[in-house]
Design brief:
The chain has 334 residues and is an alpha/beta fold. The protein contains 11 helices and 14 strands. The strands form 3 sheets. Strands 1, 2, 3, 4, 5, 6, 11, 12 and 13 form a 9-stranded mixed β-sheet that branches. Strand 7 and strand 8 form a beta hairpin. The chain is globular. The chain starts with a strand and ends in a 9-residue tail after the last helix.
């Protein structure tokens, strides 16, 4: 069995210096470690060639974002399993095998993630992945261990193997034939929510996405785009609309998008009231992009052979209502 750990780098020399030796130390005996460079403009490539000549380097011709970057790189990789790993991650001993064992135990398990803690606050879960991803009925993603800005301390409360809705792209294990069969990540997303879209597509086809607590990593987070970036606001709002339209069950699509329109206008007004004029504009810009690209998004939806209505991991209520109105701030309170 061949496993490829593929780190996508863009102007991340400082992360490669800090974390690549750790990844090699705890991975090289079980997997091939590969760095895919996304047309960096710093000296990342020269640094890799000089300091890690034994590590395979794939140089993408352009920076097409997270989605295209991985798709381009993985076209050149032959393996049974791909591990998509961010460059700002510290792995731990034996982090690969527990996930592979879980995925090998059931042919329907095609995507999985480890437990992810914060690199800077090491007892806390990490924002982007925590203990596995979920989504509410209106398309708002959250995690076990993180709902909106509330991040829990890990007390072992989520140490059960569990099917989830999505696995974070920061450390996503995926069976390579499935990745290729489903066309990889949607390149129109560029970055953000592309892993949720991929997981939703495979779940619509009857496969499972899992969380494995017996593997743990530490993630810095926000390495390329900080959490407060207006660019990130734009990508999140525009990609969420595509995510919903592409994957929702037909009878739910209109209602969910109708509700989301009003919720997103409230979010835009809130940004405006707080003085975040750029963020408010980015919400509207996201909608403009969705309208402009609608014919292409509709074609992608039609290519899906199966759209399922009920999935493990979709919270049947509004997480916005539960969190902000009912003050249920942690996963166990939902």
């Amino acid at each position: 069995m061949k496993i490829a750990v593929v780190i996508l780098n863009w102007n991340g020399k400082k992360f490669l210096e800090k974390f690549l030796p750790n990844v090699i130390e705890h991975s090289a005996d079980r997997a091939e470690v590969i760095v895919a460079d996304n047309a960096s403009t710093d000296d990342s490539v020269e640094f890799l060639k000089q300091n890690f000549p034994h590590i395979r380097l794939i140089q993408n011709a352009e920076n097409g974002g997270f989605s295209k970057g991985y798709n381009d790189a993985l076209n050149h990789v032959e393996a049974d399993y791909f591990v998509l790993l961010n460059s700002d991650i510290e792995v731990t001993a034996n982090w690969i095998q527990p996930v592979i064992d879980l995925m090998e135990s059931d042919p329907n398990i095609v995507v999985c993630q480890p437990k992810i803690r914060s690199y800077d606050e090491r007892e806390k879960f990490e924002y982007a992945g925590a203990a596995g991803g979920f989504i509410d009925r209106f398309g708002y993603p959250f995690c076990r261990g993180r709902i909106f800005e509330t991040i829990e301390t890990d007390h072992g409360q989520y140490d059960d193997v569990r099917e989830v809705f999505w696995a974070t792209g920061a450390a996503m294990f995926v069976k390579a034939p499935i990745y290729k069969e489903f066309g990889g990540l949607d390149e129109d997303f560029f970055a953000h929510m592309e892993e949720i879209d991929f997981c939703w597509r495979v779940k619509n086809a009857g496969y499972k996405v899992m969380y494995c607590p017996n593997s743990m990593i530490y993630h810095v987070g926000g390495g390329t785009l900080p959490k407060s970036s207006s660019r990130k606001t734009y990508l999140n709002f525009r990609n969420n609309l595509s995510l919903l339209y592409k994957n929702l069950y037909p009878s739910e699509r209109f209602f969910v998008l109708f509700v989301r329109f009003f919720l997103d206008q409230i979010a835009a007004a809130k940004f405006l009231f707080e003085g975040n004029f750029k963020d408010s504009f980015m919400v509207l810009r996201g909608y403009a992009h969705f309208v402009r690209r609608f014919p292409q998004i509709r074609k992608k939806r039609k290519k899906q052979l199966t759209i399922c209505k009920h999935h493990i991991g979709i919270y049947p209520h509004s997480i916005v209502w539960k969190y902000y109105i009912q003050k249920r701030k942690t996963f166990d309170k939902l």
